[in-house]
Amino acid sequence: MSHELRTPLNAIIGYSQILQEDFEDGGHADYIEDLKRIELAGKHLLSLINDVLDLSKIDAGRMDLYLEAVDVSRLMDEVFSLTKPLATARSNLLTFSVPDDLPILQTDFVKLKQCLLNLVSNACKFTYGGEIAVRTWAIDGEIFFDVTDTGIGMTPAQTEKLFQPFTQADPSTTRQFGGTGLGLAITQRLCRHMGGDISLESSPGAGSTFTIRLPIKNDGASSLGQFQMPSSKSSKTGARILLVDDDPQIHHLIGTMLEREGYQVEHAHSGEAALLKAEESRPAVILLDIMMPKMDGWTVLGKLKENESLKSIPVVVVSLLDERPLSLSLGADEVMSKPVDRSQLIAVVRNYAGSSSSRILIVHENEDDQFLLSSTLSDHGYDVIEATGNMEALTALATPPTPSVMLVSHRDAFDIFDRVRDHPAFADLTIIIRASGELSLAEAAFLRERGAVVLPPEINPQASLLKALETLKL
Amino acid sequence: MSNQILLVEDNAENRDMLSRRLIRRGFEVAFATDGQMAVDLSKSQMPDIILMDLSLPVLDGWQAISIIKQDPATQSIPIIALTAHAMNGDREKALAAGADEYDTKPVEIDRLLDKIRLIIY
Prior knowledge:
CATH superfamily of chain B: Response regulator
Shape of chain A: elongated
Oligomer: heterodimer
CATH topology of chain B: Rossmann fold
Mean pLDDT of chain B: 90
């Protein structure tokens, strides 16, 4: 089909170019503008056709890979020289950092280049007078490429649809910048076809970072997108840790260390993104780098500590600089130096965020029966904290590391519900109710509607509680 | 003496467009409209360079390239393969068959001229 579609279009584009050359030689300058419009429209239609055909080919599983030895620095040179004019035209500073010791990749050169060109030219389109940084690094048999811009950024609602065909975060961008609305859809499919994937981190006003991950040696098997960047992990396991660093390698390294321990890691690549992420995800601990471009770690620390709702979050400064006294005087809770020692990191994080298993708040009704419950839960690896009465319970809920589960008797439940429902900080909280007698129909409906888990009245509720926690994957 | 280009292209419009633009820039252009003709003409004309479309009747472009590149009489003639589109593997197949360069259609005349000049001069 492709040949049939492209051939007449080639003639339209080609003859409009020839006529422009003819008219440039022989006067008639007034026709040239119109011919340019024909040529541009023809080229736009051609790129649409090419993109649609590519997409359908990938989706139909007919896109072949041509694996070859790829020298990353040559690849990056080509991408740089092709995108430099675009960056300059929009007054952007374009920087590429490519380490010398990268391994030779075995992958499809043309398709990888297409993916990178697509990301860098997108970054140029949506950034004006800013910076676009392309970085690559290899670790654990994989290579990563990330493209960070200081552009307009996107809201979560916009990023959600971004990889779907014919969706652009803002539909008016097609008119302003051209583009088919298929580039990212194709890029994502190509990356997966090559055994890797692409992920995205973005906040409005704080720019965007796209990261491509590929195996260094492609064995020909394409992945179906098992790859999830740590930030998209949503299972409710350990406490949330916000990792702030401009170096993608640190994100990979520390992120992996923490995730292996079961923590949920949120990533921010700039000071600005860190502040937004901290508001948004309410981490139990923030790991903060100091030397970052634009907003540095000191500024971030100051802003965190000035903010009423964020100042209670413990901040651990992780930096090459040895600035312990200054860090502590500015409000940091702990200071660690790079390179990070794994066991020290885990110990520090555990100290501030609790163990990586779910933290369970038990709200006491009467003292004696709860002791058995809390020791059973601790024995099963849960991190248990206790509170007596609803006021204490609410305080515990609001203090980081915040519990992900609250166990409460049904007599207390209704009062607590009134206080925690609709409060965004408690959106992730799972509430388990110990029924101490028969619930009325209205009570049962009320609790169900709010997603609470109700345990039947039992003298020894340990077994059914553990089972409920297991079912909830907590 | 101007450089001679053998343009192998079965589509009359494409042939006309590209040749007009090459002639305008001082090249002498000979045509072949299928792969077999390309093989024959490359031997009899000994052009300075061959621009080869790939989907061609009789012999396709890849076959023609590999024959030309295997024949000691013609193997030194540089060949630029013209592929419809960068993504579909034509480039790799053309290079594997022995093409020296490739370019994508529709032809960007300045880009193609750069590649021709790099090879000829």
